[in-house]
Amino acid sequence: MTDRVSAARRPPWGTGSRIARIVGRYTLGLFRPIVALRYVSGAPTRLVAGGPQDASHGSVDGPNRLHLLVAGGLSGSAVGVQSHEFGVAAQLARLLAKETGRGVDWESLSHHNPRLSGTAAALRSFDGLASFDVIILSLGSADVLAFTRFRAWRAELSGLLEFLASSLSPTALVAITEVPDVSPYVQVGRLLSGGLAADAREFNAIVAGARRIIPAAQLLALPLTEPSDFEGGAFRYAALYRRWAGALSSFVVQNLRPV
Q1: CA distance 15 to 21
Q2: Angle at the Cα of 131 (from 129 to 132), degrees rounded to 5?
Q3: Which 3 state secondary structure label does DSSP give 239?
Q4: DSSP 124-150
Q5: Which residues neighbour 15 within 8 Å (Cβ) at sequence distance 6 or greater?
Q6: Is the pLDDT of residue 5 over 50?
Q7: Which sign does the torsion angle of CA 89, 94, 99, 104 carry?
Q8: 3-state secondary structure of 217
Q9: DSSP string, 43-61
Q10: In the chain, how long is the greatest CA-to-CA distance?
């Protein structure tokens, strides 16, 4: 993730002395409550809101059915499309059915609170976690935008992964997607934009350490946005979700246990 962030978006204290970095982090901390409030109240971004209202689960016919769960983040909520059929879970299910020749039952899980705390609440109240063969966790985007404190986020993530470790099937394939750098898509100025990029890297470092709570869990980087994802100033979520589903399908097919 670090290599993907351009120098222009790095915080000005990122390459200086340790004291300069501490001062920079403290300064950014003073602005966090204000900026977080702006996001909550609808500060402008290049992304659009809104999500599907149809069923967040479905199936693809076939034998030896795989059970797929996609939870959290844009991937779980399918923000920006009119139907879950265009979201990550459904598109991934269709690809897996094609690649494996198996049927796939899929579930897309979100929460009205898009932050990690909301995803954790949704998963803790979800029945049948042990039945899933493949679990994709997408965490952190909303927490970066809300300037969630690292210590609180680390504790929440560790608690969630400990819960999942005791709730999932021991043979389940678990993937946690990297927290993306959202700084190019928000309008907060260079200083805070660089802070968002730095925070994404810090969140990913936390994920890399905490994922060991589930020994089999793997950390995956999803494809970045491309110019073709924008049309007429609007973001084409379905196209991005299709590329994400393609990357996830390759991972699942390569790591799925044989029947």
Answers
A1: 8
A2: 75
A3: helix
A4: HT-TTGGG-SEEEEE-SHHHHHTT--H
A5: none
A6: no
A7: positive
A8: coil
A9: --BSS------S-SEEEE-
A10: 60
How many other C-beta atoms can be found within 10 angstroms of the C-beta atom of residue 219?
14
Give the pairing of strands 57-60 and 66-71. Answer: unpaired
- Are the C-beta atoms of residues 173 and 134 closer than 8 Å to each other? yes
Q: Are the C-beta atoms of 125 and 165 separated by less than 8 Å?
A: no
- pLDDT at position 16, please? 47
The pTM assigned to this predicted structure is: 0.80
Residue 225 in 3-state DSSP? coil
- The predicted model gives 209-232 an average pLDDT of 85
- Residue that is written with structure tokens 């060991």 in the block: 212
pLDDT value for 69:
98
What is each CA distance from 210 to 71, 156, 243, 244, in whole angstroms?
17, 10, 27, 23
Q: Hey, what are 205's tokens?
A: 């470092």
C-alpha angle 92/172/109, rounded to 5°?
A: 50
With a CB cutoff of 8 Å and minimum separation 6, the contacts of 139 are 72, 73, 116, 119, 157, 176, 177, 179, 207
- pLDDT tens track for 79-97: 888 999 999 999 999 999 9
Measured CA to CA, the distance from residue 160 to residue 42 in angstroms comes to 28
| pLDDT value for 184 | 65
Amino acid at residue number 46: R
- In one-letter notation, the amino acid at residue 45 is T
Length of the chain: 259
Cα 207 off chain centre by: 11
Instruction: Indicate the SS3 state at residue 15.
Output: coil
CB 58 within 8 A of CB 84: yes
